[in-house]
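Each field is listed here:
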Amino acid sequence: MKKGILTLLLFFLIAMITIPLTTKAKTVNQDKVEVEIGLIGSDHHFVYKIPKHLHKDMPYAEMKNGIQASLANHWKIGETRYEANKSDVAYTFYIQDLFQEKQDGQLKVAIPYRHLVGMFGEQDPIQLRILASKLSKWTVNTKDWTALGFMERLALWSPLLF
């Protein structure tokens, strides 16, 4: 009798282990704001791609002016524009003074995350994309997680690019 109960218990445990525990994944399709940072040659820009339905009733020009005012608190803004696409609106802001330091043979740029996306809510999903020149060897500053930092060694022809 004892042997039969132990055998039944053993089969029960083996069955529990071998039955795959599956859960049904729920797809979360939450719209996000995409922010592209461009560090290519002398072209330094931020592109904000905002889904159209997140604008609510705000006109595109008003949204552009709001983002531009927020960025202008930290950088000199050059040309700005917006382009309405099928599902989103792309706002492009060219930054004139993105490189802040030239010392020790390195160009340095630091972009505080809060300055870059501070105009959006803390709960809003934001995707960052960084585009940099293939001719540059960038290293990432990982000491401060609240800022994006990059450094590039200067070559003899680098001042011509920037």
